[in-house]
Amino acid sequence: MKHKVTFLPDNITIEMEHDGNLFKASKAAGIYVLSSCGGKGNCGKCKLVVKTGTVEPGQSRSYLTAEEAERGYVLACHSKIQSDLVVEIPHESRMQAKHKIATGANPDDILKLMKQAGGCLESRIFRVYLDLAPPTIDDNIADFERVRRALDNAGFGAEHLHMNYMMLSKLSRVLREGHWKVTVTVFSYGEVLEVLDIYPGNATQKRYGAAVDIGTTTVVVYLVDMKHGHIIGTASTFNSQGKCGDDVITRIVYATEKNGLKELQDLAVGNISTLLADLAEKNQIAPGMIDYVVVAGNTTMMHLFYGIDPQYIREEPYIPAATFFPPVRGKSVGLGLIPQAVIYSMPNVASYVGGDISSGVLVSQMHKQEKISLFIDIGTNGEIVLGNKEWLVTAACSAGPAFEGSGIKFGMRAMEGAIEEVEVDPKTYEVNYRVIGDVKPIGICGSGMIDILAEMYLNNVIDQKGKIREEIGSKRVRRGDSGLEYVIAWRIESAINKEIVITEVDLDNLIRAKAAIYAGFGTLLRKMNMTFDDLDKVYIAGGFGRYIDVERAITIGMLPDLPPDKFHFLGNTSIMGAYYGLLCDRMLHEAEDIARKMTYIELSVSRSFMDEYMSALFLPHTNINAFPTVKKIMAAKNRLV
Amino acid sequence: MKHKVTFLPDNITIEMEHDGNLFKASKAAGIYVLSSCGGKGNCGKCKLVVKTGTVEPGQSRSYLTAEEAERGYVLACHSKIQSDLVVEIPHESRMQAKHKIATGANPDDILKLMKQAGGCLESRIFRVYLDLAPPTIDDNIADFERVRRALDNAGFGAEHLHMNYMMLSKLSRVLREGHWKVTVTVFSYGEVLEVLDIYPGNATQKRYGAAVDIGTTTVVVYLVDMKHGHIIGTASTFNSQGKCGDDVITRIVYATEKNGLKELQDLAVGNISTLLADLAEKNQIAPGMIDYVVVAGNTTMMHLFYGIDPQYIREEPYIPAATFFPPVRGKSVGLGLIPQAVIYSMPNVASYVGGDISSGVLVSQMHKQEKISLFIDIGTNGEIVLGNKEWLVTAACSAGPAFEGSGIKFGMRAMEGAIEEVEVDPKTYEVNYRVIGDVKPIGICGSGMIDILAEMYLNNVIDQKGKIREEIGSKRVRRGDSGLEYVIAWRIESAINKEIVITEVDLDNLIRAKAAIYAGFGTLLRKMNMTFDDLDKVYIAGGFGRYIDVERAITIGMLPDLPPDKFHFLGNTSIMGAYYGLLCDRMLHEAEDIARKMTYIELSVSRSFMDEYMSALFLPHTNINAFPTVKKIMAAKNRLV
Question: A351 contacts in B (CB within 8 Å)?
Answer without folding.
Answer: 140
